[in-house]
Amino acid sequence: MPDIIDNFGKTNNIAHIYRENILTYEDLKKKSDALAFYLIKILDHDQSPIIVYGHKENEMLICFLACVKSGHPYVPLDSSILLPLTQFDAAILTANNGRIIATVCHKVENSGANQSLAR
Length: 119
Prior knowledge:
- This protein is an alpha/beta fold.
- It is built from 4 helices and 7 strands.
- It has helices spanning 2-8, 25-43, 58-69, 87-95; strands at 14-18, 21-24, 50-54, 74-78, 100-102, 106-110, 113-117.
- The model is unreliable at 105-119 (pLDDT under 50).
């Protein structure tokens, strides 16, 4: 599948549109390659799953493809279905060794202090 996308990446055709944001196949290839390279660099040989949290943003597609290119399974969590993240949710995400890519930013309640969840 990544090879098919990469072949389309030689064109400037539209791959995805979310609201007014257009993602071309060329941008999809470049951005997913860059993120895949980064994931390989920081995670080395660890092939554990990566949680991708967001909605229909272009970045979701980029993250999915980057995970596949870097050899990681991904777990999509749709922010439109899930309630805003709570302290319990943050604990579940922490149990995943912090391997989460958030394409949207939500506040997480943690011991009374607000923290932005965007990795």
